[in-house]
Amino acid sequence: MSQPFKLYRLQQTDSQLDQKQSRLVTIENILQDDRQLQEAQNALAKCEQTLHAAQRTLRQAEAEVQAQRIKIEQNQAALYGGKIRNPKELQDLQKESAALKRYLSVLEDHQLEAMIVVEEAEAEHARATNNLTDLNARRIEQNATLVGEQSALLKDVARLEDERIATASTIEEADIQLYESLRVSRHGNAVAQIQDNACAACGSTLTPGTIQAARSGSSLTRCAFCGRILYMG
């Protein structure tokens, strides 16, 4: 088994490791990301504050209407109770009665407005509650799927790491060092196959001598343009 072939196999293993480890990082970031949940919780908390404020306003409006009705009842009792006979006092009571009823109408309008605000706040609160409930359900389902994928990926990574150790142990240290250096400088692609007499990584045409050297596999042959290790395949 030639050194280029071993390095090519090592690169295949490393590429799979890179992909799986990258996916593991993505999964962990998703599992840790609770921004949507926090936003939904904050939205619900804001709706609760708005609803409580609207309910307080309604209770106050209801109390004012009730108090006004009591005043009207007292006015009517005095007006029609027969105790007051003075025409001037009766006239004043009638004027007061009219004023009290006009203000009751204003207060009842305020009460109606407050009721509408409460209904709207209740509807918004219900939407925020449902949104949080749905988000929690989707997050639980999503996380269960991701945790399952994460577990499978960790097993794959462990297997690939064992394969890497086994493959690397058969490669000379100097070749490993060159391979690792090229992995860094060539974005993870240190070994390139020869396809149609060209380097498959950079596309440059190879000389017949370079192709023959790569075919022999007795030593490492590198692309004159990109410097990658060539593998005849």
Spell out the helices and strands N to C. Answer: HHHHEEHE
What is the count of distinct domains? 2
Radius of gyration of CA atoms, rounded to a whole number: 41 Å
Which fold name is given in CATH as the topology of the largest domain? Helix Hairpins
**Dominant shape:** rod-shaped
Textual characterization of the structure:
The chain is mainly alpha-helical and 233 residues long. The chain has five helices and three strands; from the N terminus they run H-H-H-H-E-E-H-E. It folds into two domains: 34-168, Helix Hairpins, CATH 1.10.287; 173-231, no CATH class. The chain has helices at 3-32, 35-80, 87-168, 173-185, 208-216; strands at 191-195, 198-199, 229-231. The longest helix has 82 residues, at 87-168. The radius of gyration is 41 Å and the shape is rod-shaped.
Question: Which secondary structure elements does this structure contain, and how are they paired or packed?
Answer:
Layout: H1 3-32, H2 35-80, H3 87-168, H4 173-185, E1 191-195, E2 198-199, H5 208-216, E3 229-231
Helix pairs in contact: 1-3, 2-3
Quick structural overview:
By secondary structure, this protein is mainly α. It is built from 5 helices and 3 strands.
What features would you highlight for this structure?
5 helices; three-stranded mixed β-sheet; 233 residues; mainly alpha; 4% strand; 3 strands; Helix Hairpins; 77% helix
